[in-house]
Amino acid sequence: MDHAADQQHPIGVYLKIWALLFVLSAASYAVDYFHFEGYLRWSLILIFMLLKAGLIVAVFMHMMWEPIALIYTIMIPPLLLVVFIGIGALEADYTFFLRSIFFAP
Amino acid sequence: MTQAHSHSHPALPVHPTDPKGFVADWSSDQIAFKKVPWGKVMMWIFLVSDTFIFGVFLISYMTARMSSVVPWPNPSEVFALEIAGSHVPLVLIAIMTFILITSSGTMAMAVNFGYRKNRKVTFILLAITALLGASFVGMQVFEWSKLILEEGVRPWSNPMGAHQFGAAFFMITGFHGTHVTIGVIFLVIVAVKVYRGDLDHERPGFLTGRRGNYEVVEIMGLYWHFVDLVWVFIFAFFYLW
Question: What was the ipTM of the complex prediction?
Answer without folding.
Answer: 0.92
